[in-house]
Amino acid sequence: MGDNRQNSIGYSLPPVWTKLKQHAVFPHFTHDERARYNFLANLNRYLSTVIAPGVQVAYERRVEPAFKAEHGRTFQNRHELREAISRDAYYQMWAALRRCTMEMRQQNGRAVVLRQAEELAQRVQDTLKGHEDILRLRPGFEVPRYLRHVDNHLMPGSYHTQYFEGDVANAANYDSGLFVTSGGMLGSLTDGGGRAIAKWVRENYPDFKPKRILDIGCGLGHNTLPIAEAFPDAEVWAIDAGAPMLRYGAARAIALGITNVRFVQMDAEDMSEFPDGYFDWVQTTMFLHETGGKAIHKIFKEIGRVLAPGGLTLHIEQPQYTPEMSYFEQFMRDWDAYYNAEPYWGHMHDLQPEDLMEEAGIPRANFMQVGVRAVNDLDQPNGTQVREDYGRSPIWNVFGGWKPK
Amino acid sequence: MKLNDIVMGSDKAKGARPYFFDDPMAERVMNIAMAIATEVAVIRERIDTIERLLEAKGILAQAEIEGFVPTDEQAEERQLWHARYAARILRIVKQELDAVANPEDNKPMHQIADEINEM
Question: Residue A46 sits in which domain range?
Answer without folding.
Answer: 1-405
